[in-house]
Amino acid sequence: MPAEPVSRSMLFQRVAIIGLGLIGGSMVLAAKRSGLVGSVVAADSSPDELALGVELGVIDGYGSISEVVKGADLVVIAVPVRATRVVLEQLRPSLEEHAVLTDVGSTKGSFVAAVRDIFGGCGPRVIPGHPIAGSEKNGVSAAKATLFDDHKVILTPLPDTDEDALQRLTGLWEGCGATVLTMDVARHDEVLAATSHLPHLIAFSLVDTLAGEDQNMEIFRYAAGGFRDFTRIAASDPVMWHDIFLTNREAVLRVIDHFTEDLEQLRRAIDTEDGATLLRVFSRARAARNHFSKMLSGQAYVTDMSQKAVSFRLQPGGSITGDIRVPGDKSISHRSIMLGALADGVTEVDGFLEGEDSLATLQAFRDMGVTIEGPDNGHVRIHGVGIDGLQAPRGPLYLGNSGTAMRLFAGLLAAQPFDSELTGDASLSRRPMGRVADPLRAMGAVIDTAEGGRPPLKIRGGRKLSGIHYDMPVASAQVKSCLLLAGLYADGMTSVHEPAPTRDHTERMLAGFGYHVHRDGATASVVGGARLTGGRIDVPADISSAAFYLVAASIAEGSDLTLRHVGMNPTRTGVINILKMMGADITVFNQREIGGEPVADLQVRSAVLRGIDIPEDQVPLAIDEFPVLFVAATCARGRTILRGAEELRVKESDRIQVMADGLRAVGVETTVTPDGIVIDGGQTITGGDVDSHGDHRIAMSFAVASLRATGEIRVNDCANVATSFPGFVELARQTGIFIEAEEG
Ligand SMILES: O=C(O)C1=C[C@@H](OP(=O)(O)O)[C@@H](O)[C@H](O)C1
Ligand SMILES: C=C(OP(=O)(O)O)C(=O)O
């Protein structure tokens, strides 16, 4: 029979649903609600359910499997997975050639195998599916149209699946309220064994064990909320779950073995009163649970979609006032975890940046067996494992958006006895890693990168490193720190020469942990083989975050802002030097030294800025602050010229081009050069739509630009502001920027 023409709004004319239970019934209700399907007919082994389905208005009619499948352009199998085979045999003679055939079972390998056996292959319109939604209730009477709202549906198309069929089925599920993900069949079954099947098994088993205890009535009577939450799923349909375990046997057995081993480890720890192991496992699990949704983007239901899109909407004008402290320094926060973890004894950190970049570092050390308590209001307590105490992580270490984490880890991991793999998000995956991999290889490390020296980095363990002298071709604190960290493990001396001064937090903190760093002009050296001793670290407020407010208060009329406890390490103060050269009114007071780092309070008032030729020696000292300095230059009188800053092109985005594009979008013309930019100040910032390319510093810079705009500015892709500056929007609003963050 030829395919009937499908109307624009209608994706399927006639849907046959085989199995009218909770999932099948809910899918039909949701599909009808969406208006994307025509008539719906059902077949089910229970005549009562079918009659009820018609009575409740869920279906339009019913019949035998062959009757309902005839003429249907979508056939959905929604029976317990072990009944699938029989259903397929029965529907085969009546299935229309153009019909899309799908299912809703929890295991996908078994469905594909059954289709292959019965049809002699999987046609292009067979698309296995699995809605991740359910309830412990059964039957069509429990069906509801909202069951899939905000839930995920996994489709597992095969290599020769018909694109149009896939799009229509995807459209239908989206119309049912679900987010559709695709993955391959085997991966689906592995992921579900771990995240769904194992928890159900544990719930069934635990309730059964307790029900068998002599005092079961007493136990259940006193069962607290935790027990109820934990065992809710033990009320699920036994037949359905019996089927799932038998059809996903191998994947389930693998994950049960893994879990049993870990449970045995906990048992041993309790038996031997090994509190350290208990604390380590529990705090790692608690942290993983707290960062669950974030972690999902790196694992489990793999997709970038789990991260919500955030955009900024900024109304023009405003002035900046207040007395604030911005979050902790990102560079120092990363290093506090790294050195604290490798030290002997406990390290207490205050002022830790609870941003995604430094949290990625923290999580990675937990994954390597380090017990870390917190962060709790910036307080972190690290139970150091000693220089040789790291354990092999179970999988790749996911470092999100953080270049610092990836480059410093590369040095540290090159010297470990175990293999490791470092991965990151799309932005990090584009950044050059050859700059660390090459000198590490010269020290004896074995590191594989993707094409062009990009992540992921696959690092071979068990290599003995030898110290080298390295002349860095670019001024990079990340490369320097990477090599010094590798040097802690290398034979002899590792020394790094920098072409211009770069941030020296690694050297200062190593010294604070009692590790001698030799400094000779532009060369820093360490000799491998010594140890680190844990202590206290007070992380100052991040001058790179303060920079947004330094520029904001400078360019907005009527501003007067105090910034507290700002890190004033001379390798970081380029932004203040440059702004002062431009005529900014910044007073530095209360200067003090805390834990080896200079700190001060700053007062900044509005000023008439003038354009300057930025001295090249200031570039490494203000490397992360240029996006917002471009905004200052736009608001200054006269021309600002930046040279010698090609490094900006390999940050989270190409910060020269992306800023120039963003400025053009708000009415400001600039001239881009290979290593910098020329900005003629005094142009009107008209407002407009800016693409931040997911770069936190670009997004925040245009928030600052709104203070001098004449119209609304919208900035897209701003979720990554959380990598370095959690709470930016609230603080910006509090100090006088008219900013709204919109999700979705
Ligand atoms: O060592 C560090 O903590 C950092 C060094 C700089 O990178 P480069 O070393 O690539 O210049 C900087 O841009 C980054 O935000 C943090
Ligand atoms: C370049 C930056 O960070 P990273 O290199 O750590 O991603 C930054 O924060 O501006």
UniProtKB/TrEMBL annotation:
Subcellular location, record wording: Cytoplasm
Residues that coordinate or bind 3-phosphoshikimate: 330-331, 335, 476, 478, 624, 651
Catalytic-site annotation from UniProt: 624 (proton acceptor)
Alphabetized InterPro entries for the sequence: 6-PGluconate_DH-like_C_sf, Enolpyruvate_Tfrase_dom, Enolpyruvate_Tfrase_sf, EPSP_synthase, EPSP_synthase_CS, NAD(P)-bd_dom_sf, PDH_C, PDH_N
Pfam families: EPSP_synthase, PDH_C, PDH_N
Pathway, per record: Amino-acid biosynthesis; L-tyrosine biosynthesis; (4-hydroxyphenyl)pyruvate from prephenate (NAD(+) route): step 1/1; Metabolic intermediate biosynthesis; chorismate biosynthesis; chorismate from D-erythrose 4-phosphate and phosphoenolpyruvate: step 6/7
A GO cellular component annotation in the UniProt record: cytoplasm
Major location (coarse): cytoplasm
Binding annotation for phosphoenolpyruvate: 330, 403, 431, 478, 655, 697
Keywords in alphabetical order: Amino-acid biosynthesis, Aromatic amino acid biosynthesis, Cytoplasm, NAD, Oxidoreductase, Transferase, Tyrosine biosynthesis
Residue intervals of the Prephenate/arogenate dehydrogenase domain: 13-300
GO biological process: chorismate biosynthetic process; tyrosine biosynthetic process
EC number in record: 2.5.1.19
Catalysis performed (reactions): prephenate + NAD(+) = 3-(4-hydroxyphenyl)pyruvate + CO2 + NADH; 3-phosphoshikimate + phosphoenolpyruvate = 5-O-(1-carboxyvinyl)-3-phosphoshikimate + phosphate
GO molecular function, one term: prephenate dehydrogenase (NAD+) activity
UniProt family annotation: Belongs to the EPSP synthase family. Belongs to the prephenate/arogenate dehydrogenase family.
UniProt function note: Catalyzes the transfer of the enolpyruvyl moiety of phosphoenolpyruvate (PEP) to the 5-hydroxyl of shikimate-3-phosphate (S3P) to produce enolpyruvyl shikimate-3-phosphate and inorganic phosphate.
Record NCBIfam families: aroA, PRK14806.1
Subunit structure: Monomer.
PANTHER family named among the record's database cross-references: AROM/DEHYDROQUINATE SYNTHASE, PENTAFUNCTIONAL AROM POLYPEPTIDE
Name recorded for this polypeptide: 3-phosphoshikimate 1-carboxyvinyltransferase
Native source organism of the sequence: Marinobacter daqiaonensis
Organismal lineage: Bacteria, Pseudomonadati, Pseudomonadota, Gammaproteobacteria, Pseudomonadales
